[in-house]
Specification:
Blueprint (H helix, E strand, L loop, with lengths): L1 H4 L28 H7 L7 E6 L7 E4 L5 E4 L3 E4 L5 H15 L6 E7 L3 E7 L5 E5 L3 E2 H7 L7 E12 L2 E7 L1 H5 L7 E2 L4 E6 L4 H8 L11
Parallel strand pairs: 6-12
Antiparallel strand pairs: 1-2, 1-5, 3-4, 6-7, 8-11, 9-10, 9-12
């Protein structure tokens, strides 16, 4: 237990001798079922939605979220869409249309094509959070989206969590050797979780790792 708890808790910039880095069996993740994706999906730039306003054909049709995160509608102009579910966005459109133009409009929004998916970046980075990725990216680019490693980070211990073949998997990577070109920059996929070791590791991550058998960390658990 103590070894697991200490996995990401150390601040010294060195590799963990208990870990195997860059595992070859850390493959692409499982595809999420469409129903699960739609239930949790938040709109992002480039996404296309179908807007249906009951009995108002001129307001209905396919529309795309622009680079600024807005969707432009007749009458009401640009409406912020990023970060909202299709249900939330439909309610927002109905409220805006009902405020000035229509009486109790019935608005339905459905996702037609999704561009933005997200990766979670946590731990000792400049700005932890969810970041959109179109399909896949690399570990270095993912860390850069979170404004790089923070003061007190250990770039030699970065753990990526991923769902593979129905099981949670994890792998360790060393940012310093990746930057130097000694190790490949691994592919990061939507729904991955990237955690950078260091002073800013939260107790929640320590608790999670306490429940993970150390010997199985780089296969399935």
């Amino acid at each position: 237990m103590a070894a697991c708890a200490a996995l990401l808790a150390g601040c010294a910039a060195k590799r963990d001798a208990n870990l195997t880095y860059n595992p070859g069996n850390f493959t692409a993740p499982d595809e999420l079922p469409v129903s699960d994706t739609l239930a949790t999906y938040r709109l992002g730039p480039g996404d296309v939605v179908n807007v249906t306003v009951f009995n108002v054909d001129s307001l209905s049709g396919d529309r795309q979220v622009d680079a600024a995160g807005n969707l432009t509608m007749p009458l009401i102009g640009a409406v912020p869409a990023v970060g909202k579910s299709t249900q939330e966005f439909g309610a927002d459109l109905a409220a805006r249309l009902g405020a000035r133009y229509l009486q109790q409009p019935q608005v339905t929004v459905s996702l037609k094509s999704a561009v933005a998916r997200t990766v979670t970046v946590d731990g000792s980075v400049g700005t932890p959070g969810l970041y959109p990725v179109p399909d896949k990216t690399t570990l270095l680019k993912t860390i850069a989206m979170a404004r790089g490693t923070s003061q007190g980070a250990n770039p030699k211990k970065v753990v990526v969590f991923r769902q593979i073949n129905g099981q949670r998997n994890a792998a360790a990577f060393d940012l310093t050797t990746i930057r130097d070109g000694k190790d490949p920059d691994p592919i990061i996929y939507p729904n991955d979780i990237v955690v950078v070791d260091g002073r800013d590791i939260s107790p929640a991550w320590v608790t999670l790792l306490q429940s993970v058998p150390l010997i199985a960390l780089f296969s399935r658990f």
